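Quick question, first post here. What does this chain look like in 3D?
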Amino acid sequence: MNIEHFSELALDERILTALEEAGYQKPTEIQAAAIPVALDGSDVMGSAQTGTGKTAAFVLPILQQLIAKESTEGEAPGDEGPEDGSSKEKNSKKGIRGLILSPTRELAQQIEESIAQYSKNLPMRVCSVVGGLPIQKQIRELSKGVDLLVATPGRLLDLMQRRVVSLRTIQFFVLDEADRMLDMGFVHDVNDIAKKLPKERQTFFFSATSSPDVESLARVLLRDPKRVAVHEIDTVGKNIESKVLFVDRRDKRDLIIELLKREEPKRTLIFTATKSDANVLAAIIGRQGISAASIHSDKSQKERQKALAAFDAGEVDVLVATDVMARGIDVQGITHVINYDIPQDAENFVHRIGRTARAGTSGIAMSLCDLDEVKYLQAIERFTKETLEVEREHSFHSPLVETMKGKKESPFARRGGGRRRFR
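> Answer (accepted):
Ran it through. Tokens below.
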């Protein structure tokens, strides 16, 4: 099936508007294959490699079907109620209707941000509950009512045992990165959660690799699933010169300025892990006489469009972005990508550097790695099956960080990467 535009997928206009505002027009191969099958109500077993747009492949059909269910119940979302969010509250009080399980906190938070982006024009609430963050804050968010819940298995079971979360109203269940779930020892947690789900539900099961254990888990969770798969894509572009720069955390901002002045790039995209770092870094760069702007989900649509237009037109030389917002950036001629932070998920590294060297051109990717990020760099190199070239010709090279990188990898780093998988 050759689908050229999301409008061919029978999606609500409000979803299409959100996609357009985010810069998405043509579905990826996995989206074009999975969305029509899912809209028919079938369970979906998906397989694809990194960078294929898997998150939207399950989020969009879930949103569309929730809209359809509201319409048949006589309450089409967004058709009535004030614009102050009270209609959003009304729908969310019906109970959790969609559950997405993710193996890691970082991926769960990215999925949450993607859902918020796609559902921005809909009266639906999304929330993530993950380990490593204060549970009381998550409990307060849940008390407001949630339509779609993104969770890591351990934290979800904790909340279920506290009777904070009930799964009896779940209509859609997504197991994301099933193979990684198994690698991380979550199979018993997943089974315990699945036992609490209603039998009448639609299930999405995504795994980058197949194994007897993956197939066994799929048989437990899925009913007569439709299988969708796409071809593997390159993890690292052939025309990208990718380097790593070892540096102390406190020196990263100064190193960014040095690199920008030395390289004098025409169009640079810098990635940060947080929205606050994006804002601060753009301001620091601007004070050096280099035109810069930041883009992230806290910016208004007007602000994001203005920054993107200026970057595309060459009026802004440097755009500082977080991962989720950057997925809507489709700008030609990006000469440099700089990772201010090493991404904790190896796949995000591939997404980031893939913004340069497009349409047969060449590009440079530079990743700043501090001591705490060595384990993430090791995971990236296992995932891409390439060792990044070390750039030592700068004022802030840290021999200590480089030495630590060469030491034996920790069990955590080994667990977090080394497999080909996808978002």
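The radius of gyration is 22 Å.
Confidence is low (pLDDT under 50) at residues 75-91, 408-423.
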